Amino acid sequence: MAAAKEPIVQVFTPDYWEEACKHLGKKDRVMKRLIPRFGDVRLESRGDAFTTLARSIVGQQISVPAAQTVWRRFVELPRKLTPASVLKLKVDDMRGAGLSARKVEYLVDLAIHFDSGAVHVDAWENMSDEMIIAELVAIRGISRWTAEMFLIFHLMRPNVLPLDDPGLISGISQNYFSGDPVSRSDAREVAVAWAPYCSVATWYIWRSLDPLPVAI
């Protein structure tokens, strides 16, 4: 049987990016130095909310290559990846794709939340970051960090500061404190100058550690 073709995914970029870069360059000496290093590369959002969150669950605590393999096997199980189709899958088939029992439970819970309307996708545009985080962390397997990554990479919210992210803390340490240890309080103090574009500044801090753009 021929392998399933990957669907064509539309890619979106934030309309506020240029304005954010100008703001950060004026307000922060490190950003003024960092931003020009990466040219026109910017944050990209792709795919739908359910698929993005499902992929984040599949990739938890395993290597990127392993996650890609398991994801490819998983998405070939249903004819189309939707909450309803996931709820119809057999547990044995999901386990056979390489998913742990716990991740199967997480994916089923994610599908239930989306299928039942417990997450208000259509209303997210008018909801605050914290309200969306509260909806997402009610789903098994989704932590606050995962929810914040979703806000940045999928919803492209401009002012998210993921203080639980080790890359952000490490990057602040290297770029602002000469490698000395950094507390959450230190990070918040640095980020005062970033507002209202903490997501953009965080993205550039990540780039300073790894020039390849992150995607979820």
Automatic annotation (TrEMBL):
Its EC number is 3.2.2.21. This is DNA-3-methyladenine glycosylase II. It is an enzyme of class 3 (hydrolase). It catalyses: Hydrolysis of alkylated DNA, releasing 3-methyladenine, 3-methylguanine, 7-methylguanine and 7-methyladenine. Keywords: DNA damage, DNA repair. SUPFAM superfamilies: DNA-glycosylase. It comes from the Bacteria. Residues 58-210 form the HhH-GPD domain.
